[in-house]
Write a structure and sequence with these properties.
With about 250 residues, the protein is an alpha/beta fold. The protein is built from 10 helices and 10 strands. Helix 4 links the parallel strand 5 and strand 6.
Length: about 250
């Protein structure tokens, strides 16, 4: 959902340029589009966020998009949206036979157990991982243990940020700790989004959890090498990233 302001129009125009079908993106009248601005300097980065309640996704938005969800092979549910709405989307995806991938942690803990039970895969950054598991995660072994514990709640694959140790993955019968990339880190904005996108694409192509995780980690490492949360979305750019595992 976007507002009817210039920012919303710009986002829809950019989506069209990128070949993204925005049929089910609703334009809300008389409201501003939600924005997250990232400030980056020598001391690190921080978010400034303004998301009006009117542009948060609703159950009506999910129901309107039902035709697309029912035809999809994979449904990614971003859990910064209202938890009951995320749950409705995940339930619809599960009923349609989609691979359901959860990204983040629901704001409302009352829906957490039901969402996890519907998920084929779950990904969470470091802060979200701690909120999701209820444990501090400072290093790789803790992240592996936390990811393995979440498998008991339903997902077939869990990917958690492991701080300086990289990315922790767990699936029934296996686990893997993937180190962070060796390239330069300019701006971490969008790294998690790149990870989820690559993970979803790899699983959709039938790749194993381990290989999908490695490709996702490579995508995240590539995304942080440039300023901004929108890196060039192409395989050609991925090949240019040192150490990437793109085909």
């Amino acid at each position: 959902a976007v507002g009817d302001d210039e920012t919303g129009m710009g986002l829809l125009a950019r989506a069209a340029e990128d070949g993204i079908d925005a049929t089910y993106v609703d334009r809300r009248a008389r409201t501003a589009t939600g924005l997250t601005v990232t400030a980056v300097d020598e001391d690190g980065w921080r978010y400034f966020e303004d998301v009006p309640e009117a542009v948060r996704v609703s159950r009506e938005d999910v129901e309107a998009a039902a035709p697309a969800i029912r035809e999809a092979g994979t449904l990614i549910v971003q859990l910064q949206q209202p938890a009951p709405v995320a749950l409705a989307a995940a339930e619809m995806g599960r009923e349609a036979g989609c691979r359901v991938i959860l990204d983040g942690v629901p704001e409302d803990g009352s829906c957490r157990t039901r969402l996890l039970a519907l998920a084929d895969a779950v990904r969470a950054g470091r802060r979200d991982s701690e909120l999701l598991t209820g444990h501090d995660i400072r290093e790789g072994r803790e992240a592996i243990d936390a990811a393995t514990g979440l498998l008991d709640h339903g997902p077939g694959l869990v990917a958690l940020a492991a701080g300086p140790d990289g990315h922790a993955l767990a699936w029934p019968g296996g686990s893997l700790l993937i180190p962070l990339g060796s390239g330069p880190v300019v701006d971490v904005t969008g790294a998690g989004d790149a990870f989820v996108a690559s993970l979803a694409a790899s699983l959709a192509r039938g790749r194993s959890p381990a290989e999908s995780g490695r490709r996702a980690a490579a995508a995240a490492a590539w995304a942080v090498t440039r300023l901004g949360g929108r890196p060039e979305p192409s395989l050609r750019a991925g090949r240019r990233h040192r150490g990437s595992r793109f085909p």
